[in-house]
Write a structure and sequence with these properties.
alpha/beta, 264 residues, 7-stranded parallel sheet, 10 helices, NAD(P)-bd_dom_sf, SDR_fam, Rossmann fold
């Protein structure tokens, strides 16, 4: 499904990240993939992982730096003749900012988190735009906390809401170029980033029992949905939030505890 397509994935941190699952799926379907790293620690991880994906392009890209973003997009496009797809899988919020309640969010933390987690998508699309081919696709990753209050998600929920809104405006701007922009909002997955959330383990345990499909999603589930959105199969889909969460997002406040109380 992806033979002859080449794209850049921004945000692979390790082999447990959602972006890694997406990269594996795309590679298995014939895609040529480039990766970026934000710092030396991630670079070391990726240099060990890159051969497993046949990656030939690996570039520094601190998404707070527009010059690095431009260099990564220009460099990849020069090497591979353009950009067919772009995956944004970048988010950051300091752990103490998530744990202390949203009302206590500092101005500095707010600015940094929105910059890294949301504005970076805008900058990536702007600098990739000259290299996008007609039919190209952009994908970013979100979570239910963008739309509802999720305990412990706090500032990151606001950042994801901004990311989703930005994706819709980008879809409008890039549509005339034949470029699609979509978002996957997935259920919780055991990534290193997610394990930093104060209530993540409890969230994971409860989520499956409260979803129409009674299991937690896997990296492969998310990768398969990403494959659809990044391939020509989704040529008429843009500006959308695609839920990959077992249907949890359609539920109200129902839980097993609520059901037992009602039965009593």
């Amino acid at each position: 499904m992806m033979a002859g397509k080449a794209g850049l994935i921004v945000g692979v941190a390790n082999q447990r990240s959602i972006a890694w699952g997406i990269a594996q799926t795309l590679r298995n379907q014939g895609a040529t993939i480039g990766l970026t790293y934000a710092n030396a620690q991630i670079e070391k991880q990726l240099r060990g992982l890159a051969p497993r994906l046949g990656v030939e392009f690996l570039a520094p890209c601190d998404v707070r730096d527009d010059d690095q973003i431009k260099a990564a997009c220009d460099g990849f496009a020069e090497r591979h003749g353009g950009i067919d797809f772009l995956v944004h899988a970048v988010a950051f919020a300091a752990g103490d900012e998530l744990a202390n309640g949203f009302i206590n969010t500092s101005r500095a933390a707010f600015v940094l988190t929105l910059d890294v987690s949301a504005y970076s998508l805008v900058s990536l699309c702007r600098h990739a735009r000259p290299h996008f081919k007609p039919g190209s696709s952009v994908l970013s990753l979100s979570y239910l906390g963008s739309d509802r209050v999720c305990v412990g998600y706090n500032l990151m929920g606001v950042a994801k809401a901004a990311l989703e809104s930005a994706s819709r405006y980008l879809a409008a701007d890039l549509g005339a170029d034949g470029v699609r922009v979509n978002v996957i909002s997935s259920g919780p997955v055991r990534t290193l980033a997610a394990l930093g959330l104060p209530s993540f383990r409890e969230m994971l345990e409860k989520r499956a029992s409260q979803s129409p499909l009674p299991y937690n999603v896997s990296l492969a589930d998310i990768g398969n949905s990403a494959l659809f959105l990044l391939s020509d199969m989704s040529r008429s889909t843009t500006g959308s939030i695609v839920w990959v969460d077992g249907g949890y997002n359609i539920m109200g406040s129902w839980s097993e505890a609520d059901a037992r109380a009602g039965a009593a």
